[in-house]
Each structure stands twice: as C-alpha cells, then as structure tokens.
Write a structure and sequence with these properties.
This protein is mostly beta strands. It has one helix at residues 3-22; strands spanning 35-36, 43-44, 51-65, 68-80, 84-96, 102-111, 117-128, 134-143, 157-164, 169-176. It has a single domain (49-176), classed as Porin (Beta Barrel), CATH 2.40.160.20.
Length: 178
C-alpha cells in the first residue's frame, strides 16, 4: 500500500475512533465535519455516507486457535447513494490479538436487483464494547466492470464503521475517501 495513503487511513481511523469514544462508543454522526490530512495542511470532509446497510451474520467457523482466527459470512441489505438497493454478501477472517483487539481482512460483492455487481476487499480493526457488541472501523477498496449506476465505485477507496450485536445483527455506514 502507498505509504501516504496508509498514513491517511491511519489518521482517519484515529479521528473516527475519537468521535466514537466521544459519543460513548455507541453512535456516530452520519456526517463528519472535517478530518485533517497531513499531506498539505488542508482539511477533507467525509460528508454524507454513500453506503448504509443492515444485515446478519449467516455463518461462522474457527480457522485456528493459535492465533485465534475466526471466519464470518454475512448478508445485508444496502442502500447506495440513498436510492440504489443492493444485496451485500461477504466473508471476513478475524485474527484476535492478545490484547483483545482484532484485525480483519474481508471481501465480498454487492448486487443490485437488475444484476449490476461491484466487488470489494477491506482491512479492519475492531474490538468489543462493554455491551458485548463488536465495533469496527476500516477501509474498503472497490472494483466494478459496471458502466451503469455502480460505475462510480470502480477504483474507489472508502472508510466505514461497522457494528455487530450479540445476536449477529450488523449495521454499517461507509463514506468515500477522496
């Protein structure tokens, strides 16, 4: 990964984490006013999210016990740009660190009712909240052959917040990282 891009992602995750902690770890505004970049002293706004979803974990398995690695498969109903419906299907591999923080790599695809498809990979860091929910923040990397309504996703980088409750219900909000 490009070192400058990596620093931007790390900085944004720190800003998002501070926002999450400031709200008690249970909510984050759908708009973030400004997150400063270190590149040239300018500020960047995330604005409104382009991707909002709710879904459920539909499968899980233990890949390893040393280190602890878990695989989860999920399906979710997504709304893109407020007016495009899609189904998101994905799988994550979570490696639990000794301090309880986990690092996750994921991949998946979204499909609209008329068959347009986009794929993604992501890198995530997360932990358990005091309520027992999983709270994660990460970066996604999108790709699509679409020339239709999902074409804007091609070569997009995004940042997101994901929460999964004890019953396996998930919700996520995602912003384009410009």
């Amino acid at each position: 990964m490009n070192p400058r891009l990596f620093l931007k992602v790390v900085y944004l995750v720190v800003i998002m984490t501070a926002g999450i902690l400031a709200t008690g770890g249970t909510a984050i505004s759908l708009q973030i006013a400004a997150a400063q970049t270190t590149e040239n002293g300018t500020a960047a706004s995330l604005g409104n999210p382009f991707f909002v979803e709710k879904g459920r974990i539909i499968g899980q398995r233990v890949l390893s016990v040393s280190p602890v690695q878990l695989e989860f498969t999920f399906v979710a109903n997504a709304t893109i740009n407020g007016n495009i419906n899609a189904t998101n299907t994905g799988t994550t591999v979570n490696t639990v660190q000794p301090n309880g923080v986990f690092h996750t790599k994921g991949q998946g695809f979204i499909m609209t009712p008329d068959g347009e498809v986009a794929t993604y990979t992501n890198q995530v860091i997360g932990n358990l909240t005091k309520e027992g929910n999983v709270l994660s923040r990460g970066a996604g990397f999108w790709s699509t052959p679409s020339t239709g309504k999902l074409a804007f996703l091609n070569d997009m980088m995004s940042v997101f917040r994901l929460e999964v409750d004890r019953e396996g219900n998930l919700s996520a909000i995602e912003w384009e990282w410009k």
